[in-house]
Amino acid sequence: MTLSVGPVQSYVPGSTWFDLTKYSNLGTQERVSINLADSNLWLIDSSDLYLPYNYAPRIAFINEGAGYQSPVSMTAAGSTTGEVTVFANLSGTNSILPSRNAPLQIGDWVQLSEIQAGTQLNFAVTPNGAVSSGRAPLSTDYTLNPTDPYNPNSPVFWTAYADPKATRPLILLGYEDIAGRGSDNDFNDGIIAIDVGVDNFRAIFTTANLGQDPRINLRDAQTQAVPFEMHSAAGLLVIGAIVLGRRWGWGRFWKTKFWKTKN
Hints:
Strands 6-3-11-10-9-1-12 form a 7-stranded antiparallel sheet. It has one domain (20-254). Helix content is 6%, strand content 25%. It is mainly beta. The protein contains 2 helices and 14 strands.
C-alpha cells in the first residue's frame, strides 16, 4: 500500500472530528508542564504508535511555540510503507508564537490514506527545515536522535499523550525542536493531534500507557494498567490486562524523563 496525505482542511467548530477548545491550553505557556489529571490526559510511549487495524488517520495542527518554521513528516513501516510530509511548515498565524506569513491556522488538519493493519508509525520534525535543510530530523524513533548534554531528555524529543475520554479518543504529540545549546526542553515547539481510530487507540493505550505522573523517568518507566472503562461512539470498550513486551524491541530501552515543570 502506498502512503499519501490530502490537502490541508480548515477547522469548523462543531463539525470537525475533534474539539479544538479542549486542547486550547496546550503549548500556551513556555517551560511549564500541563496538569495531566485535570486535562484527562495520560502519558504514553511516543515510539509505540503501532496500528494493528486498518485505518485512514487524520492529523491536526493544535499549536506551536517556536520561532522555527519546521516541516513534520510521518514514516510508515510494515504492511504499509512510505514517508509523507504531513505539514510542510508547522507554523500558524494565530498560534502562541504566530508568524505573519505562516501557512496554517490552529485547527487545520489533513486526511491520510488508509494504512493497513500491522504498520508502525513514526513522526519526525526537521528544525527550521522549511527555511534551511541543514539540520537533521528529530524522530519519535529515539534510536535516530542525538544525545546531547544540553538536552537532559535526549534522545527523546517527542512527548505523547492519550485522551481516552474525548468523544473520539485521540493521541497528542509535542516536540522539542532544538538539539543542543539553546534548547528549553519544553516540548511545545509543535503540537499535533492524531486520530488513529478507536480500535488502534485502544491497542496503543493498553501497551503504551505510562500513567499521569509527569515526573517519571521514562528510561525506567513501566507500562501502567488502564484503570477505567473507555466509552466511545463504537460502544463500551473494556481495557484489559497490559500486554507486556514490545513489537519493536528498541522502544523501551531508550526511555528518559521528557516533560517536567520548569522553574
